[in-house]
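Researcher: Re-running this chain for the archive, since the previous output was lost when a drive failed. Same request as before.
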Amino acid sequence: MQPLSSRQQLAVGLIFTLLMAVTRSHHWATLSALPDASWAIFFLAGFYLRPIWIVPAFMLETVLVDYVAITWGGVSSYCISPAYGFLIPAYAMLFLAGRVYTRHHRLSWAAFPWLLGCAVAGAGLAELFSSGGFYLFSGRFPDPTLADFMSRLSKYFPSMFSSMMLYLGLGAIVHVSVASLRGASGQARQP
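Model: Regenerated structure tokens:
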């Protein structure tokens, strides 16, 4: 894949910023609210956006959206605890997984195992940091056990992962569509 121009990266970054603001503010998907796109955004940012400062910028946005959602949106502050800082390595893992996939990306079905593997690895590590950190360091679970953590992991991870895959699937459709349009317009110009 050719790297995006600065203008294209700016457009993608703004789209991701808007998507994060719109989907993260609800924290849980309902019939009137889209599922949280944060995990997919960090993965896709690793894939599309070159500046490393984008990671702390998106992390700052998550904090601001959470603050607004809790302060003015009526969202519960249950998840805000000393463990909140574990979102930093969780989101960093997703970003790095997107960067790893960039090295293996091709517009070919042969790249699909790389996409799936990087998405699963990034999401798995993100879940271990975010849920594991919350479980062990939030102060909400007085007697943590591996069995209890595993039951919570099996309860919450599938919905987070399926939301991520929904957005990655939509992103893949857009990516392939844009690449196809570019390829068609490039072929039309050749004599």
